[in-house]
């Protein structure tokens, strides 16, 4: 029986041992798990379309949120700019990219807030009203909560960039964060299609 | 090199008054070492095993004789709810992820998990979920209202969970505790996937991974797809109960069947999430005690991946009696039966590994042999139930209960016991007693078969599950009595096991680094492994790195 404490290092020359980055793999895993959660909410929304026993119906009250959608989708481009700028060690442009991302995301949240305010106070649609209200607020709210989490993290990154703590060597971390943000945007495309295009 | 365990050292030093208790507790509570977190998972799971075991015994006492009034119907409902929930979420998953946490980094030659702090967070939030579930005994409308645990079944079918039918907060405790432990489970699974992909030592290609690591990888991938729906469904149920949403509210047009779909989209893959790690243990133990390399490594990997995929498309076989229509039933009958193909491949490969081997019947190996037989029978009754007409006859009878306990106890728990006996020397540096191990095996085996073989019979005779008592003269009395006696045997076996665990920690024979003459990387470290695992990060050239090291004249790497 061998009682060696360790395995000796091989003296042979071996090809370089490159493994994927932990951050990216971890984020991809998180995105898969989150996607599973979202799918269940999508399925509920579709399943309950037209099954409400009382009004209002989506066609009566929903309007296409064009402004918010444009803001959110373009923020994917700005966050990509921020990452590429940081990779080239251009901290100023990175800060600019992050700031515009946070701004665009915040504008999206404002448009959602206005939409909800309109639905609740003008149309009388709450989560209790009917199945449409239940599924609508749950799905859009779940997405909005992800936007808020993303905004908080992006703001932290922005503060770090402005205070000079974000350096070129942190590119990978910012890239992982941008992956999350792209995911949130991609989910919005599906929400837009299901809730506002098909659902109406 | 110290042969004492970290646990033992801690106990010794505390007893000797060397270190204050607070310091030891603080060290364990704040640790990010994957081995300590793994041990804490296992410890937590054993506590819940005892609690849920006591619940099972109370139910068997109640059912042992007809017209029994040992406990009230309400308490009985709470018992089977808590027993199921605890065993699946706070015993099964934590104990398996505990082993995963402990073994995966060691086996791939890594120094820790990919995200150590996330690992600690996942453990503590799961533990908190378990405590929250049991806090319902005090908090729901509890001690300040006396004992109201969840009583809606571990599947919590709508509309039983609606505010009208389940007033008070017991169901909320159930929902929130599963939500929390679900987050913990996803965190751990994420960590295991990332560790396996990104932390492998030099030369550890995917096709050289120990099968255990492969199986934990697939299990963790399934967790993402299975626990997500559960979490989503729990969020919906919470919205229903707290702010008046109507997801599962049939009065407002909501659907109770939708809850069943969501629950079983989680619930069926969950069975495989529990059973794949059990396969993983058998994959490591059977070859070592047969002194042969595992037969058909690539086929084992492929079968595991296939099980992972197919298991996601079989959930509605829990719902044949709902009225899915002929097309739906047919699809799920076939999907369910197809899964027996990769599972059969695995059984054949284990048998082929044993075939012609120099078999050494140490305790881990006899538990694996028990596993092989019982898993086969469990699979056969599973195929019976997957035929929709048969299921219509026996759905919600004790036949179903017997079937899934055959999988959960006969396969998973037996594999788990094997894993305990096999890796105990690595964790503590001491061997578990073989004599007590054999006693444990035989008592538990007899108890298991008395309980769950005979439980099929009242099921066939029409005894429904979840009833709290029954009248005499239906032909169920004798069978229920036998089942109850079997349960006592299992308890005695488990007591042997727990006694063995504790006693061997102090009195066990010193094990050395590699008591089983095994060949995976964890046996290359001292027992117990130091906090950094490997002094020098290892390099591997084959699937059996230690074999290469011990047999330089005939290494595996020449053949791969």
In short:
Chain A has 200 residues and is mainly alpha-helical.
Plain-language structure description:
The complex is a heterodimer of chains A (200) and B (560). Chain A is mostly helical and 200 residues long. Chain A has 6 helices and no strands. In chain A, helix 3 runs antiparallel to helix 4 (91-122) and helix 5 packs antiparallel against helix 6. The mean pLDDT of chain A is 91. Chain B is mostly helical and 560 residues long. Chain B has one domain (35-558): Cytochrome c oxidase-like, subunit I domain (Cytochrome C Oxidase, Chain A, Up-down Bundle). In chain B, 67% of the residues lie in helices and 0% in strands. The longest helix of chain B has 35 residues, at 73-107. The two termini of chain B are 35 Å apart.
Uncertain segments of chain B of ≥5 residues (pLDDT<50)? none
Average pLDDT rating of chain B: 92
Instruction: Give the class of chain A from helix and strand content and strand pairing.
Output: mainly alpha
What is the CATH class name of chain B? Mainly Alpha
CATH superfamily of chain B: Cytochrome c oxidase-like, subunit I domain
Report how far apart the termini of chain A are. 73 Å
The count of helical stretches of chain A stands at: 6
Q: Indicate the multimeric state.
A: heterodimer
User: Any guess at the CATH architecture of chain B?
Assistant: Up-down Bundle
Number of domains of chain B: 1
- Rg of Cα set of chain A: 22 Å
Q: What's the overall average pLDDT of chain A, rounded? A: 91
Keywords (chain B): Cell membrane, Copper, Electron transport, Heme, Iron, Membrane, Metal-binding, Oxidoreductase, Respiratory chain, Translocase, Transmembrane, Transmembrane helix, Transport
Subcellular location (chain B): Cell membrane
EC number (chain B): 7.1.1.9
Transmembrane segments (chain B): 41-65, 85-108, 120-140, 173-199, 211-239, 259-282, 294-316, 322-341, 361-384, 404-424, 436-458, 478-502
